[in-house]
Records
---
Amino acid sequence: MPLVSSKDVLLKARAEGYAVGAFNLNNMEMAQAIVQAAEEEQSPVIIQASQGAIKYAGLEMICAMARVLADASSVPVVLHLDHGTDYKQNVKCLRAGFTSLMFDGHELPLEQNIAMTAKIVDIAHSVGLPVEAEIGSVLTIEGLLSDAEMAEIRALEVPKQFEILRKKIGPRVEAHIARPEEAKRFVDETGVDFLAAAVGSVHGLWLDIWPLRVDRLKEIYDAVQIPIVSHGSSGVLISKAHAEAKGVELLPGEGSLKDAIKVGYTKINVATALSMEFNRAMLEAAAKRPGEKDPRKLLDPARKAVVAKTKEYIRLFESNGKGGGATCAAKGEVAGSQEIKRGEE
Ligand code: G3H
Ligand code: ZN
C-alpha cells in the first residue's frame, strides 16, 4: 500500500495500548530489512531518516526506497524525518514525499522552539502531514563520555557499568528531563501531533542498561494527551525482569520500555541497536570470507540480522497484534485516515 501518515498508525496504537517502532535506515539493506520484518510480523512500521542518512543517501533516494518498499508491502509503512533541523528541511521533506515530519528545536530557548514548531505545524497541517517536536533534551552519550571512558566502563560487569554510569552521567541526564507544565504549554501553543519528551534516555547508549523516569513520563502524557515519542531507545532497559537479571537497581519512579509503553510511549525510535547488529553480522561474514569480492555476500547476512533484530523490537512493542491489547494492528483499518494533499503548498 502507499506510504501512510504517522498519525494513522500512532493514534490507533495509543488507543489500543501498544507502540510502533520507528527504525532508522542507513542504507538500502536496512530499509529492506525493516519493512521485511514488519511484513513478516504483520505490523505497522515507521522508517525514519536521520540527518546522517539524508547526507549519505540523499533525500530523493530515501523517498524512492521508502515508496517502493511501502507499495510492495501489505502493512502500513510511514516515512518520517528524524531530528529535522529547520523549516526549510521540513518543507523539502514535505514536498519530497515524507509522510511524517519532525522539528528538533531542543537547543533553542522555549519561546523560539514554540515559534518555529508552530510555523512548521502550520504548513504541515495545511497538507495533512503530522509533526513531532522535542522538549527537554535527549542527550547523546558521545557528548557525555569520552571514547576512553566508554571503553573503560564497557569492560566492566553490567552492575558495575550501571553504577558508574549512574554517577557519571545521571545528574546531567536528569537535569534535561522535560517538565509537564512546559510540555503542556508547548503542545497547546504549537498544535504538534507527537511529543518527543526527554524522560531520561540517552542517544547511542549501548544496549538495554538504562532506566527511564516513567513517573515523569506519566505526568507529561496525562498533561498533553498526545502520543509520546521515545528517543535514544537502544540503551533503555527493556523490562524490569531484564533489570533484575542484570543486577541493575531501579529507584522509585524509574522503569523500562515496557513500563513506558503503558503510560504514553507510542513511537519508539531505535537506531543504534540496528546499526550495531548490521555491523556485527557484516564483520562476522567478512571474517569468515577473507578476500571476498562480492559485497553482497557480506551485506546479505547483515540484512538478515537486521530483520531478526527488528522483529524482536516489534514483538516487544506488541504492534503485531499479539499483545492482548492490540488488535488488527497491521491492517491499516484506521478510523478517519489522514489524507495527505501535496499540491501547490
Ligand atoms: O532519533 C533516533 C533515536 O532517538 C535513536 O536512538 O540510537 O539510541 O536507538 P538510539
Ligand atoms: Zn533521537
---
Amino acid sequence: MTGSARTRLLDDLSARFLREFGGPAPRVFFAPGRINLVGAHLDYNGGDVLPMAVDQGVFVAARLSPRPQLRLRSLDQELAVDVEVAQVGNRTQPAFGWAGYPLGVWHSFRDKCALAAGVDLVFGGNLPMASGLSSSAAIEVATALALDALHDTRLDRQTLALLAHRAETGFVGLRCGIMDQFASALGKAGHVLLLHCAGPRWEHVPFDPLACEVLVMDTRRPRHLARTGFNERVAQCATVHELLRTHVRDLPHLALYTLADVEAAKGAIDELLFRRARHVVTEMVRLASGVAALRRHDYQALGQALNDSHSSTAGDYQVSCAELDVITDAARACDGVFGARLTGAGFGGCAIALLRPGAGATVPLQVAAVFQRRFGVAPVFDLLRAGTGPIELR
Ligand code: GLA
C-alpha cells in the first residue's frame, strides 16, 4: 500500500468515527494479516507452521464509551452493529455478522479483565476479506490490542493472541488452530515466525526481501465450504489420531507420528482418514526442509517445499480447487518463480508464489492470461512484505 493510500484510509477511518460517534478523536491501532509459507493444516494437529505477518492488515479507531453499549462500524461492510453489553452472550448470532469477531474478543477480554462500560469501534483495512490472508485474525488482534490499550491492562502479545484465538473458537465457532492469531500478534518486519503450536513456542527466522519476494494471487473464488469443510477436516484428524493411539502408539498430537506409523495402521483406518493422516505427517517433513532451506537462504529449495505442500494439500487433504490448482501451476511455469501453493485453509481465496526479485513485473501478466483463458475472471495480484506485529499509530 502506498503512503498516500494509507493516509487516505486513516483519514476515512477518523472521519467516519467522528461522524458516527462525535466527541474527541479516537486512538488508532493496526494488526497485520498473514500468509503461511509451509505447514498446511498442522496447527490444530500440534505441528509446526511457518507464517509471515504481512504489511497489510486491519486498522481500528477505538474509544471507550460511558454508555453500556458496544457500537461497531466498518468502512467495508454495510452492517452496523449496536449491542448492549448485557446482550452480548457467549456465542455470535447471525445479526452480528462480521462484528462477531470483535465482539468475541470483547467477550474473551471481559472474562479475563474487568472491563469498563462500552466501546466504540470503526474498522477499515487493506486486506482482501475472507480470502485466506486472515482478515478475521487481524480484526481480532487489532481489537485485542485496542481493548488492552484503552483499559491499560498491559497484556503481553501471547496473551492477546490467545484471547483472539478464544474469540474465534469459542464465540465464532471455527475450530481453528493458533497460527493466524499468533502470526498477527507476533509479526516482526523482515522475519517469518516458526511456531511450534504444541508449546506454543516460537522463534523469528529472517526472510531476505532482496533475495525473494512474496506474490499473493487472489483467485477471487469465494471460499466455498470454508467453515464446514474446515471443521470436518479437524474432526477427521481427531478420529484418525485416536485410531493411531489405539493401534500404533500413544502420542499427544497427530503431527508427531511418522509416515511409518501411519502405514502400520493402514489396515485399521479407512482410505480417506489414511490420506488425511499422510498429509499431516509428511507436511511436518516438508516444513522441516522448508525451515532448513530458509535458514541457509536457499529460496529454490524453500519454493520446492511450497510446491510439494500444495500437491499434498490438494491430493491427500483435498482443500484445493480448480482455481487454486490452475493459478499455482501457471505461476510455477514462469521464469523467476521458486514455488507456489494455496495459503490459509484453502477451498478458494488466495495462493502465494515466491519470486526472484524483479519477476513481479512479468509473472502476474503471464499467470493472469492463463487464468483468464480458463475461468474468464481476472485474478488480483499483490507483492507483500514481511510486516510488523500489531501497533498503535501515533
Ligand atoms: C485457517 C485456520 C488456521 C490454519 C489454516 C490452515 O487459516 O484459521 O488455524 O489451520 O487454516 O493451515
---
Amino acid sequence: MLNIVLFGPPGAGKGTQSENLINKYNLTHISTGDLFRKHLKEGSDLGKLAQKYMDDGFLVPDEVVIGMVDDKIKNTPDVNGFIFDGFPRTVAQAKALDELMSNKGTPISGMIALEVPFEELKTRLLERGKVSGRVDDQNEEKIDNRIKVYLDETLPVSEYYKEQDKFSAIDGVGSIDGIFEKICEVVDSLSVEK
Ligand code: ADP
C-alpha cells in the first residue's frame, strides 16, 4: 500500500493536491479538517466539541482526533492506500498513526511537505475566507494563531519523519500542475511495502 502524509501549514495547498493524488494513485483521503467539518454540519457531539477549538484555530485534543482517524481507517478496509491531510499535527498523533498503521501491517511510505512563505499563506487564506464560509479563514488574528500553532506544535512532526528517513520537501509556490508534477516525482520514488 501507498500511505502518504501530506504536510504543510494552513493554506499550503494540501487539500488541492490531495484531490490530484487521490485521482492519480487511487488513494483514500483522510482529511481531519474535512471530517470535523462533516461532524459539525451533522451536529454530532464530536462536531460540537471540535468547533470550540476550530473556530479560533486551536488544535482539537489528540485523543479526539486519534479516535476519529482510527474509526475512519477501520471503516475503510481494502484500499490501495491512504493520503493523510492535516494529520498528524502533533508528535503524539504521529506516534499514534504509526501504531495504527503497524496494526494494519502497512507503514507510512513517506511524508511530503509543501513549503510556502507565511505572507503568501495569509493572502491565500483570506482569499479562501471570502468564498469558503470558514470562520477560521476570515480573520487575520485567527490566521496568525493557526500559523503560530503550526510552528509550535505541528512543525516538530516533520522532524519525526526526518528521523525515519521518510521526509521530502517541495516548493509549494507556483502553478498547481507544476507543483503536482514535483509531488508525483517524490511519490514515484517512494518504496512501497505491500
Ligand atoms: P487548515 O489546514 O486550513 O488549517 P484544516 O481543515 O486542516 O485547515 O483544519 C481546520 C481546523 O480543524 C484546525 O485549525 C484544527 O482546529 C482542527 N484540526 C484539523 N485537523 C486536526 C488535527 N490533526 N489535530 C487537531 N486539530 C485538528
---
Amino acid sequence: MQISEQRIKIAIQKSGRLADHSRDLLERCGLKVTQSKDQLFCYGENMPIDLLLVRDDDIPGLVSDDVCDLGIVGFNVCNEKKLSLRRNGKEALFKQVYALDFGHCRLAIAAPDGVDFNGLESLNGTRIATSYVESLRAFLDENNIQAEIEYFSGAVEIAPLLGKADFICDLVSTGKTLAANHLKEVHTVFESEAVIIQTQAPLEDAKQELIERMLQRLDGVLRARESKYIMLHAPRSALAQIIDLLPGSEYPTVIPLEGDGEKVAIHSVCREDVFWETLENLKKAGASSLLVLPVEKMLV
Ligand code: PRP
Ligand code: ZN
C-alpha cells in the first residue's frame, strides 16, 4: 500500500498497554480503517488518515523526523527520547498537543523487599538498573545523587536478583510486576499517561485543519466519557434546590409536563459521574422518575 503525502499519518503502538485503547479512541472519533496484510499499516477508509503500527519506543522518533504527523504514546517514552536527543546535541522536533487520560503509570525507583530505604540519600553509591537511562540520569542530577546507572533493555526487574543492581527504576502501572519480583516501590520519579504528539514540521493547511478537527472530536469523546445525561421530574416549588443538587450541570432544560401544572421535567448534562447518593438526595428533594444515561459524543 502506498503511503501518500497528502494523508495524515498517525503512529500508534502495535501491541502493548496503549495499543487497543489508541485504536479504540480513533474509531470513536469516526475513523474506519482496514489493516494491511503485514498488519503494520491501517488505511483510513472514510478519512485521509492512516495508522502506522509500531513499537512505542519508535513513535517519538517517527514524529520528530516527520515520518508521521502525529503519534499516540506514553509521556514517559517522549520524555526519554527528548532527553536522549538532547544528550546527542539534537532537539526533539515534536510537541505534545493533548493528554489523553489513559495509560496512567509512573516511573519509579524500587528496592528488593527487606532493603532499607531512608529517603533519596539511600541511593548514593548504589547501582540502579533501568531502561530509562536519561530520565533516571536527569532525576539523579536534580537531586544531587551519585549512583551508577546500569542499562537494561528489558526485564529490569530481575537485575537485583542477578546481582547487577541494588535498585531498579522502571514503569509501574498496577504494581504486579514489582510484587511478582519481590520488589517494593520507594520513590516516584514522574507520573505518566498517554499523550498525542505532533511533528513540529509545518503542515499544509488542509492537514492542520483535519488534525484540529480530530482533536476536537477526541475532546468530545473524552468529555462524553466523564459525562452523564440525567432526566427527572420535579415539583416546580423544588426547582432551585434540585438544580443545586445536579453535579456539574450549568444550564438544565426545564420542560412543562403536559396535564400537570405542578410538575416539570428537568434534563441536564452532568460533567461528572452521578452517584447513587446524588440520586437519593434528589429524590428526597422531591424528584421522581430519575433516569441517568451515558453520553456517547459531545461537541461544545
Ligand atoms: C512495563 C514495565 C513493567 C510493567 C509494569 O513494561 O517495564 O514490566 O510494565 O506494569 P505493572 O505495574 O502493571 O505490572 P511495558 O508493558 O510498558 O513494556 P515495554 O517497556 O516493553 O514497552
Ligand atoms: Zn516499549
